[in-house]
TrEMBL record:
Membrane topology listed for this record: Peripheral membrane protein
InterPro entries on file: SCOC
Biased composition (Low complexity): 1-22
GO cellular component: cytosol; Golgi membrane; trans-Golgi network
Pfam families from the UniProt entry: DUF2205 (PF10224)
Keywords: Coiled coil, Cytoplasm, Golgi apparatus, Membrane
Endpoints of the signal sequence: none
Name by which UniProt lists this protein: Short coiled-coil protein
């Protein structure tokens, strides 16, 4: 009778390691992983740039609104001043 710690023959066969991967498949896997990491880093860089551009766009939008208000006020004051001179 087999001891409590022995494994059945079918379980031992299932636990046996698969055939070693070929050198070519290992190299291809390494190239794929390297490519994925490079693409990931590129995406990170793009996300940083997008954030910077969004901040700059918001700043320029606020500056444009301020300048628009300033020009409107100057135009009103000029019209009022011109009306008083008549």
């Amino acid at each position: 009778m087999a001891g409590a710690w022995s494994t059945p023959a079918s379980a031992a066969a299932a636990a046996a390691p698969a055939a070693e991967p070929s050198v070519e498949s290992t190299l291809e896997k390494e190239r794929t992983i390297k490519n994925i990491l490079e693409l990931r880093d590129g995406l990170r860089g793009l996300l940083v740039r997008i954030t910077e551009v969004e901040k700059e766009t918001d700043k320029l939008r606020n500056d444009n609104e301020f300048l628009g208000t300033y020009i409107d006020n100057l135009t009103r004051n000029t019209v009022v001043a011109a009306g008083q001179k008549r």
